[in-house]
Amino acid sequence: MQEIQRVRDYLQLRNPRLQIIELDADTSTAALAAAALGTEVGQIAKSILFKSKTDYFMIVAAGDIRIDNKAVKELAGSRVRMANSDEVLTVTGFPVGGVCPFALPQPVAIYLDESLKRYDVVYAAAGAGNTALPITYDELYDITGGSPCDLAQK
User: Fold this and answer.
1) Which residues lie across from 62 on neighbouring strands?
2) How many domains does the chain have?
């Protein structure tokens, strides 16, 4: 798939040590990915695209947390909604369930939730609903240029 190759090419330039895992199993949700990888659901880095009044932005968080909508609204400075599947594909170039938080065709603000720091390694999608990329929080921070945030419901 060209989406996976786009992620591979991006990694080759920025951190060639990182390697995509392609699985025979569906990894399009945090629960499915955790089952396929034999990890905790929290170790799956879910990438969620939101739309504010003026722009799109992405939150990457541990797969086992619920995001606090009020905190997201505060972060954006306006009401927000989750992007629909067509918007996700258009803005990120990846299908829902395979959204990688980098190698995006256009600039999108990335916010990395503190919930990811609980794990030495998390698994991000890498372009398709059967991929996983083992990555540390620091590597994810470096490769996305993301901003730390704390958006988990308390």
Assistant:
1) 45
2) 1
Let me know if residue 154 belongs to a domain.
no
Query: Is residue 154 within 8 Å of residue 64, measured between CB atoms?
Result: no
Q: 27-30 long-range CB contacts below 8 Å, 24 or more apart?
A: 27/97, 27/125, 27/129, 27/130, 27/131, 27/132, 28/96, 28/97, 28/98, 28/125, 28/129, 28/130, 29/97, 30/63, 30/64
Residue with tokens 């591979």: 8
- Residue whose pair of structure tokens reads 């990555």 in the numeric block: 135
Residue with tokens 């794990």: 119
Q: How far apart (Å, rounded) are the C-alpha atoms in residues 82 and 18?
A: 29
CB 10, CB 24: distance < 8 Å:
no
Q: Which amino acid, residue 122?
A: V
Residue-wise pLDDT tens digits, 93-126: 999 999 999 999 999 999 999 999 999 999 999 9
Handedness of CA 84, 85, 90, 94 (dihedral sign): positive
CB 148 within 8 A of CB 110: no
Domain at 142, CATH number: 3.90.960.10
pLDDT band at 1 (very low <50, low <70, confident <90, very high): low
* Residues forming a β-bridge with 72: none
